[in-house]
Specification:
The structure is a single chain. This protein has 6 helices and 2 strands, in the order H-H-H-H-H-H-E-E. The protein has helices at residues 2-28, 34-45, 56-62, 67-72, 76-79, 84-93, and strands spanning 103-104, 107-108. Strand 1 (103-104) and strand 2 form a beta hairpin. The N and C termini lie far apart (57 Å). The model is unreliable at 7-26 (pLDDT under 50). Pfam families: LTP_2. Residues 14-104 form the Bifunctional inhibitor/plant lipid transfer protein/seed storage helical domain.
Length: 115
């Protein structure tokens, strides 16, 4: 019985890893890797604190990204740690196009996005 439980846990972990790695691969096809975006912009998209204008470095990284692609493929595991509303605000502040109605993770860009 213990062997069966171990095998079940192992298979579950492998499937979860495959899903997460698959999502990260999808994001790499959006023009940049997620790690680069998070490294450059994390302080501007944290859940805590006010909305603040992003740094030039953050904007430089975001301008290389297909934002709608990134929004569509954003891993929920990471979304729990950041504010998707702030992420959209930062992208728009950097001059990136985020069309209204775009679903970015669980956040939907409102018809009249407020900067």
């Amino acid at each position: 019985m213990a062997c069966t439980t171990r095998i079940l846990v192992f298979v579950t972990l492998m499937l979860a890893s495959t899903v997460v790695l698959g999502k990260l691969h999808d994001i790499s096809e959006c023009g940049s890797n997620l790690l680069s975006v998070l490294e450059a912009c994390s302080q501007f998209i944290r859940k805590d604190g006010p909305k603040v204008s992003p740094s030039d470095k953050c904007c430089e990284v975001l301008k290389k990204v297909d934002i709608p692609c990134l929004c569509k493929n954003f891993p929920p595991e990471i979304e729990g740690k950041i504010s998707m509303e702030k992420a959209v605000y930062v992208a728009q502040t950097c001059g990136c196009s985020v069309p209204k109605g775009t679903k970015c993770g669980s956040y939907t860009v409102p018809p009249a996005a407020h900067l």
